[in-house]
# Entry
Amino acid sequence: MKPFEYTTPNTIEQAVAALGPGTRAFAGGTDLLTLMKADIAAPERLVNVKTLLPRGIEARPDGLEIGALTTLAEIEQHPVIAQCYGALAQAAALAASPQIRNLATVGGNLLQRPRCWYYRNARINCWLKDGADCPARDGENRNHALYGGGPCYAVHPSDLASALVAFDAALWLHGRGGERTLELADFFALPVAERRTETVLAADQLLLRLRLPPHPPETRSCYLKAMDRKAWAFALAGVACVLRLSGDKIAHARIVLSGVAPIPWRAAAAERELQGAVAGPDRFAAAAEAAVQEAAPLRHNGYKVPLTKALVRQALTALTNPACNSK
Amino acid sequence: MTTRLEGRAKVTGAARYAADARFPGLLYARILRSPHAHARIRRIETSRAERLGGVHAVLSSANSPRIGWYEESALFDRTLRFIGDEVAAVAAESEELAEDAVRLIEVQYEPLAFDMRGAPAEPKTEQRGDLARGLREADVVLEAAYRTQTALHNALEPHGCTALWHGDHLVVHESTQGIFAVRDEVAEKLGLSPQKVRVITEHMGGGFGAKQIAWKHTVIAALLAQRTGRPVQLMLERSAENLAVGNRNATEQALRLGAKRDGTLTAIDVRIRFEQGAYSAGGEASDVIGTYLTLYRCANVRAEQRPLRSNAGPAVAFRAPGYAEGNFALESAIDELAERLKIDAVELRLRNYATRDQREDKPFTAPQSLRRCITRVAEACEWTHQRSGLGFAAHDWAAGGGWPPAEAEVEFRDGAARVVVGVQDIGTGSRTALAQIVAAELGIALERVAIELGDTQPEIYGPTSAGSATLATLGPVLQDAARRAKNAGRGRAVRADNPKDKSIRTCGAQAVELAVDRDTGEVSVKRVVAAHDCGRIVNPLLQSSQVIGGITQALGYALSEHRVVDPRLGEVLNANLEEYKVPTLADIPEIVNLSESMPDEEANATGAKGCGEPPIIPTAAALANAIYSATGVRIRELPITRDKLIR
# Structure
């Protein structure tokens, strides 16, 4: 790790003023410190925001507000989230390990960098680190992207991000011009040459809080995750599914995929298959098929196509199974 | 139930490991490693690192004596043969400073062509009978090829040591499974008499074979300590651990099995290639052909193994080296053959298991113990090959019987014993089991036995913890020494030879029950049932620990562990515990240990044999056989990740 300066400002405004190129905000540190220790990130200055940003979960008439410093463990264990936003609680419970969930914040979770093993190796100058090319494209790419790949084929590592997008979350950012809000779905953006990150967050902005809109009580949701082992692994593929039925018809459907694209990937074609349709196995199979229609597998990640299909089908089946009243 | 003598010290944190050694003036060292899979060093410039405050020494080929290492190579060679090969080392006042200093070393490399696939070296071949005739006599010939991956040991405690000099005497607190092996090797490299080197291993956090030889870090720490006049601690980081200090060799095994209609094996033919990496590291050899030559009775056998030299880190012994790899292929193939013959897979094993050592041409001391293990496991899992998701495998292991040399000393007065042996407790509980043998012989309570081990100073030689041999090597010596002490107050004994006309082995069987979701490719292991012949069981709790630990490690080998290399870059992509996936608690199924105490009176006076390695051997094959049973898909390559099973 390279030496760096560490400051603890007194206000958010001071923190924002201190931010900029070469400076990073520091909270749970579960991603940033590993990047620094591995020589992937080498900030000159860390701005401690642990005492500045909001932490906690508040149920309000206009939805649920989650402070950026709220830990994954707090999200996993919150009764309102478990009851009304089940997919989010499940995504939190399936992320990382209990030790990490006790430290990691939801803000950091959304901003974490990819786990791509080329990106995480300091000796390899991949495109995401301002190199010329992506070595994963023609390399060892079993963990890599099916969608949105090129120039970068790394996948977004967050489980929570997909669940939050599936609940139509919005977020608040604080920059030099004060606060602004935007849809979480618009916050994530495929990396491009002039912005080699997975979000539109500027170097001098802080993520303050998230808001989940209220969902009618009949809303059901779940998060399914496939890993290389039973726990403590990033998703090979994950599916966040939010569903609302009206009689036997699907009134609302959101399907967002993890582990298959550089950002949480909304399966819009699958949602279209479901919207207004009668819930049932054939329709679910069609939705699963639609979810992978645009998949562009690489040499070693072709298995993610049937895997994603299976997870979408299993999620839809679980949510409409009368024996299961998962919300 | 007798628990570990050191259990309390371990769970309270009182137990001291290599990294816990603290001395006044202690310095910390770090190693600069090659970023190239193959390169020549043109120039090393260390002055910037040396000028950094708190840095006490920088060592490289530019300023240290040439000390031979790995066949023709050297401690700091100018030619580097894998990413992770040692280039230079730094001693500084903190680990962080040492890391900073390593960054300041400037090296000009001349990259050379490299080969991650490997060039074949000379084969080792063993044969008996007439293979061509065996194949002609067969009614069915099964031909199949299997592959196993490179696996990494990932002991929780990395390699490392703390070295300090007292005048011209060197003391090393080392995490090693061979204190005498390290002592002798380090003394030789430094040009010292072995008596001037003392190696201490009070406790260690796992070795699994990777710590059975002396590695470069110990000599580097000793040289840095010598140069600075201060004690030096050098512990490896996880990445170095996974690049440079050993792995289980990947294999390709092409085999033919010939059998008559009644199941009689008439021919075994196997050609094996295994990845040795850039160097031959020494220690226990990977005898992949071993089990092909011994597990089953067969008159016509040809077995060949050929190492491949590549620009990757060197392979070294890993818990049952060779046998874990060979057994996966052979025991998968036996199931495939059983299906072709329409003979029950367990029945086929019972018809063919060997009762003599065909390699040495002598009978086993316990010729029927394998039958006992097979039938016991088959009964417990209500074996029938029609049951979906149930798989079976048997195994043998050439070691476990112990051997000379070894010695021990016992003092006995006022109803209490003091025991001195020269082994280390690798973590299996050797300390406890050996003390139990003395207590039993003297007829005193275990609490009345004080055992000292893990120190070369008393000059009482003990063997390396390898070959599942510690208990069977030292148990009889201690029994003998205790008997002498009972009469004379003090007794010293040495290990007697094993019987000349018999062969000692260990063996066993396991069954795996699992379910496969073909839609997601997910394997869920429900239960593993195991029975292993380890002679007399001295401590059932410790024996169970070995069975549970071995099967857990084997499940990782079978399902999720795989060193991934990019052959274009020569890079190991997952030299960490994030992407190299060892099993978590959630991955470990119910493990039923049915091992019985089966005293092997002909093996040695205690009747005990080892059980450290056997439990890791048959799990992968039993699991692959269970997957076939569940899905009809035969997987011939480890690890069995979901991409191989998904529909």
Q: What stands out?
A: Chain A has a mean pLDDT of 96.
